[in-house]
Protein 1
Amino acid sequence: MTSLLHPSEKSSAATERSYADHARPLWQRILITRESAVVVALVAVILYASATVPFFDRPITMTYLLLDVTPILLIALPMTLIIITGEIDLSVASTLALASVLFGVLYDAGMPITVAALLALLAGLVAGCLNGFLVTVVGLPSLAVTIGTLALFRGIAVGLLGTTAITDFPDAWTDWASDRIGGGDVPQVMIPFVVLAIAFIVLLHFTPFGRGIYAIGQNETAARFSGVKVVRTKMILFALAGLVSAAAGIYYTLRYGSSRGDNANGLELQVIAAVLLGGVSIFGGRGALPGVIAGVLLIGVIASALRLADYTADVINIVTGLLLVASVASPALLAWIGRRRRPRSAATTPGD
Amino acid sequence: MSTAVAAEPASTRSRLKSLLQARETGIMLAFLIVLGTATAINPNFLFSSDGWRDLFLTPSILVVLAVGQAMVIITRNVDLSVGSVLGLTAFVTGRLFVGAPGLPVFVVVLAGIGVGVLLGLINGLLVAYAKAPALVITLGTLYVYRGVMLSWAGSDRINAGDIPSSFLSFGTSSVLGIPSLAIVSFVVLAVAAVCLRDLRGGREFYALGSDPSASVLYGLPVVKRTLIAFAASGGLAGLAGVMYVARYGTISSGAGLGMELEAVGAAVIGGVAIFGGSGTVLGAAIGAYLLTTINRGLPILGIQDFWQRAVVGLLIIGAIVLDKVLADRQHRKLMAERD
């Protein structure tokens, strides 16, 4: 009962995939995927916007785009792994706020800023472990658990600071959060992000641990019987999500120079939207990190282009929502069109 | 005759026993404890006319949302768009009052509910025909509906002056000491409870939620039920939007923001299992009462209301842990009986 999917659809989807995939030549299997579709869409939007939207091709646009999407980029990494196992974590933005508030409160209380940052990271780790404990050891559905901890962590963050904000952080730290590499156009914060992204890509795509993540998402029972340590894997993933969210919280605090209880309110939905847009299946067992990174950047680029073209945030909301719906609805729509064009020729699945 | 008399105490006893074991009793008890504690510290919490009114008035909108949400969750779906639907229908209602002042109030109310049903149907159609999970679809429409409302509303907001005073006075009026809006929510609750308990269609919601593939094999109208569940949730969110206008008079862009999680939280606290197939709308409604009453009670207990969301989070986690413990115990008991 850990998957968000009806069992019947899951098994049929799995069988379809494993046969159809290997029926095609290698180059098709590599190039014609959900992930490359997102990358193509990203490149197309960038080219189109550079040609039509004034100022979009300026380097400063990219700098601010990257600075703005960094929290989403960071949190999307562990979120991808969690969704591939068939679980979900809605509490990430609340963990971000909790870390941000603790960082601010501890620093304000006279603690050295490094210690405050480390304690905030530790709090994120504990928060992630609490999620992991409730999901794996107690055996509760992650959707319900993390709706609970979403309220709990945000509640503690708001409770600690009320409506006040802490804003007096040392300049050296706040400058670091928006400085560029060597005075160029790429923000410095991309360095830790790229390191982290490579670590996550290696972890997911090139280690037995990563194969275990896919196995859990495909069929948890089968994974357990083939020796995947399901409880340990999920525990580690939720802990990582807490830790990375806390790191994003510290970055968020420094970037905007403000530690507040309502920091990044609702960010969890943006992260999940970006991950799903990047080709990760909400049913688990499917998806890849390069696609997710492209998905986050795609939403960021569209938002930034629309903003430069003088559209307001509401249009960006509509576009994000439509993209998300279209990305999950399009396979069914294409299959439906295919069935109409070739009636009776395609094999029908039983019980469909 | 004598057998009937003899049988009666046994049936009342078993009825009493099932009442005590019901999931709703526990949550009701929690609600009464919160109410009792707050009242013991400050009698005005319950016994002043304002306190009595707020007890019923404050939760009424969330009750309507939670009832709709419970219906969707019972079919093993979820509707994250209700907060945005509430905002959009509240805005439609307000615009109709401003743009067509001559329109009778009940037409405006029906229009608000109708828009809600339409938005719910869009969710339902996408979920049923695109075979996509409700979580993703309604997350998408959450953004779209909110975006439509914002781009339509722009920066203008609707104020109490634009709304007919008869409609606003309905929002604050009472019948026999019970606020009218609370009566609306009770009617919604009663109708939904009867439909889910006694009607064939309602029972099919539970069947669909407990085992979707079995429902398909059994020949239940799965698509139709999914559409009805989402249309009902949308329509109730529409009604909640209309109630929002009656209650507050002003509609800003933030109307209903984040309400979806409160509605899901109320349903989960009230014992509606997140994977469908069990729970009642009554439980969800009591969950909504518990949430809002805690919110109002915290300052009286000497806790700053900033901590309210933390308490709500603990409650949700406590409720699902309790459900899990109860389910495990039931499972063990059944296993023991079988052996």
Protein 2
Amino acid sequence: MSLNRREFLGRSAALTTASLLPYAAYAADTIKLGSVLDTSGIFDAYGKPMDQAMRLALKQINDTGGLLDRQVELMAYDTQSDMALYSQYAQQLTRQDQVDVVHGGILSASREAIRQTMRKSNTLYFYNVQYEGGVCDRNIFVTGVTPAQQVAVLVPYAMKKSGPKVHILAADYNYGQITARWIKKFVEDNGGEVVGTDFFPLDVSDFGSTVTKIQQTAPDLVVAPLVGGAHLSFFRQWAAAGMKDRIPLASTTMGVGNEHKVLTLEEGNGIMVAYNYSQELDTEANKVFKDQWQAEYGDTTSIHELAVSTYQGILLWAEGVRQAGSVEHDAVVEALETGISIDGPAGMVTLDPQTHHATLDVHIMEVENQGMTVIETLPQIAPVDTQAVCNLQENPDDNQQYEIQI
Amino acid sequence: MDLSFVILVEVLYAIASLVLISAGLAVVFGMMKVINLAHGEFMMMGGYATITAVNLGMNVFVAMLLIAPLVVGLIGLVVERLVIRRLYGRLVDTMLATWGLSLMFIGLATMIFGNTTTGISTPITGFTVGDYQINGYNFFIIVVSIVLVLCMLAVLKGTRAGLIARGTMQRSDMAAALGYSPDRIYMATFFCGSALSGLAGAVLAPLVGLVPTSGGAYIAKAFITVIAGGPSLIAGLVSSATSFGLVSQIFTFTISPVIGEVALLVAAVIVLRLMPQGITGRFFKGKL
């Protein structure tokens, strides 16, 4: 068969129109959810399970009839652990895809890259990650824990178990700096003393001299908000020096991306942590969630705090849409500001109208055999750090990330 | 007393690890004048080779000291045959090519091993000195780097092969006139350099968590050490590693680890300002 140019153009035009028609008809009555996550590149250990959790939540929503009798359509972009792509895809989601809500962003830098674009285009934005706190913007909802939520719970427990003298080792960027300040505050509030604080750039992986320095200050407890793969070496070198049985460790970050599954038993066992979620949570909701995950992906080992946070973020948004009876921006924000709450795999999550951050259960846990054993559950901890600086009820036009002075 | 002993061990360890991470580069860059920007990735591959071998049930020391250098050496051999040998004497071109190689290795490692941090625990337990605990593995690294330097010295100075290699690097036309094949000698030397990088990565692997991008952390320190060392291969390596290790540890202990890293870089700038030809350009002239 031979085609001349005119015929070819005619046919392809017809084909294109035909293929677009059902799509256009379909797209018109779906709710569009945009997602920007690093599902490849160096942050994929965080991003991949988050993406899986999001797809699982959407599948469940769609299988049970969707939202407002409409199906939810996912527009997902992989930012490949490249900051520049965050701005690009954020623009694409708001301008071209015209989504109704955006969930995503992992690092604080990526969140700030997206946040202003979303605000300008008046697109509702959910950030579902543990972070350093302080973001005050009526357009964003945050469903992860902030430093004060964890530290307020973890420090008193760890001090009770060890003693009053604390040495802090933190990652040298805003998360570590701010968290270190909160640790200092709660150590002092509980009658303790910080005997040393050290900050490490993210690529430092040699902690030999640090181990010696810590022994010079002779603390009862080491609290370590260290971040990333290089910093994981600290836990390894600490154990290799035989320090683990002498001075206990607590951390606000170890395990968020399932890091505790990389450490051997003798390196990890006994490290104290506090999170909203762990796979070992013995609740009915968690069991159901893990079964659903298993049915969808065949294997639950990759589930971590950030994934569950994402899952709960989607549920909260869906609940907001249901209560608003619309996906219209202002209506949904108002519905979410009524103190809305959902029961997620990690327990009840409530949105705080004042800060748009989540009030949630925090569990004190200890690493045991590459899992986290729950020691104690503290229900409904409020994001006190952000509440100290941010009040969206009084200043709805506020738009900045406060650095919380303590 | 206990503390000064512990600090002495830490200083020696810092020097030893600088010697270790720079040894491969000293051969490839110092001797062969090939700017190998993939040096860090050679180390990273040494680490992965060790971890893989250990996970397959191999003894950890055999994996570190034998398997990893061999594997990385062979990868280096392939790289030399396919890329580097076409670019001898073209500094900028080798730089670009090896940078590309480093990106490729990172990509390959990500495809094979994924992006999560992996690692093995240190095979030597810590021990007590008075009130202090020391990581026993530090001693292992110190011993390995001393043995390494002695071996390099013995091979380069004591054996015919070392003499031929040194001669070829200085005047390859003369070596060729004497009946040796510069092509083969370059190939063998690059193999040795890569194997040394692999060894360094392997020995350091149990101390640090490994990700495909780990190599980046070493490359700057390795180049600084080799460049500041100057023209003499071993004397340069040892003297600059000693100065930088000492400086960085003094500042680490008196101020903080971050200042220690900064002090290392500042020391490098000062050394190169005062001695543009490197330490062995002024002292230890003519030494190996």
